[in-house]
Structure formats: structure tokens, C-alpha cells
Amino acid sequence: MPRIRQIAALTGAAALALTAVGSPAYAGTTEIRKVSDNSLYNGPAAATLIQSMVVEAKVLGVTTTTTCTTASMSGTVASNGPLSISAASVSGCSGSASGITFLGLPWSGGVTYAPQGPPGRDGYLTLNGFSVSATVAGVSCTYGGVAVANGFNGSNAARPVAANSQAQVNMAGITINKTGGSFLCPGSAAIKQGVFALTGGGQSLKVTGTYP
After folding, report:
1. What is the mean predicted confidence (pLDDT) over 103-116?
2. Is Signal tagged as a keyword (predicted)?
3. Are 7 and 46 in contact (CB under 8 A)?
């Protein structure tokens, strides 16, 4: 892939941070519960990519596509929604991007119960202060900001990957913004596809609560 097309590949890593859309207005309660016995859950949280991340970006007017096949995040979640991500990794990205690094960990954030539909999401996930850097053909670029993505319980027929019964976060339709780097770096990129499955200590979780 030509050098300019390679530069866009790094945006797949930024996408894996659940990149920015506007957070909806909300007033209600959120509860994170175990699916097995419906008890409130506090503890380790993990996110694993179950649908490849596909990202498009324009570089000097040329649309480029990047695909990443493997990614994971880990941290903790509280029963009323607060979330912290302490580790994150990505691999299997086409487009010859190298030196992809997640910066500024841990990221704070939360899970919010805010159903839409039917059919539709059960809530949304927010991450604050994430940052990603990458070097491609000697050019360094950085992306970051506040990240918001729609979430679905494993019992929700509208979940994006029907074959997987875990809670899921869908990142399609999100835009990534550049925060630093060369003028050759894409100013933004659009996530066309990408889903994470969420678990807590190896257990299936769900989000519920009250919503106005």
C-alpha cells in the first residue's frame, strides 16, 4: 500500500478505543448485573473484538480502508456503571501500520442504561481521555478524545453479532478525530464496522436500571 494509504491504517487502532460521538442527555439509574443470578456486579471487566474493525479515512481526497482483526481491553466496572480501562491492545491490522500504542491509560468512563427501540440499544459506553499513537513510514500521528458507543445486552435480538450471546458494544458510525501529528495524517476517519463482546470476570453481564 502506498505511503499515504498506510497512514490511514493507524486510525483502526484509534477506533478500537470506542471513539467519539456525542453523549446523549440522560437522567435515570444504571445497574450492572450478572446474567446468571441477576445479582449486582462489581469487579473485573473485559472487552474482546468479535467483529473485525473496518475504518475509512480520506487522505488528500483519496478514500482508504483499514481492517483490524484482533483487539482487547481490560479494567473494572462498578455496579452503578463507572468503568476504568487499565490495559488495551490491538493487532492483525492490514495496511502496514506499525508502532500502534495506546496512551494515557487508565481511561475512565462508564456504562449508562439508556434503551432505544424496539429494536435498539440497551445503553451506551463512554470512555474519557483515551489516546492512540502510531508511526507509519516515519510519520507519527495521534488520535484521541471522548469515546461513546451503543451497547446491547446478550438477550437483545438487535445485538449486532447474533451468534454471540454476550453483551456487545457496536462502534459502527463513529468518527475519529486527529489530535496531533503531520499534515499527512487524516483529519478524521469513519468506523464502518466493529463490535466488542463484554464480560465480567468470565461471567455474562447485562445493563438495566430506570430510564425516563
Report:
1. 93
2. yes
3. no
SS3 annotation, the chain: CCHHHHHHHCHHHHHCCCCCCCCCCCCCEEEEEECCCCCECCEEEEEEEEEEEEEEEEECCEEEEEEEEEEEEEEEECCCCEEEEEEEEEEEECCCCEEEEEECCCEEEEEEECCCCCCCCCEEEEEEEEEEEEEECCEEEEEEEEEEEEEECCCCCCCCCCCCCCEEEECCCCEEEEEEECCCCCCEEEEEEEEEEEEECCEEEEEEEECC
**At 157, which amino acid appears?**
A
Whole-angstrom distance, CA of residue 112 vs CA of residue 78: 11
Handedness of CA 154, 156, 160, 163 (dihedral sign): positive
pTM for the model stands at 0.84
Separation in Å, CA 160 to CA 12, 95, 172, 193, 198:
19, 25, 10, 10, 13
| pLDDT tens, residue by residue, 18-29 | 444 444 555 589
- The residue whose grid cell reads 490491538 is 90
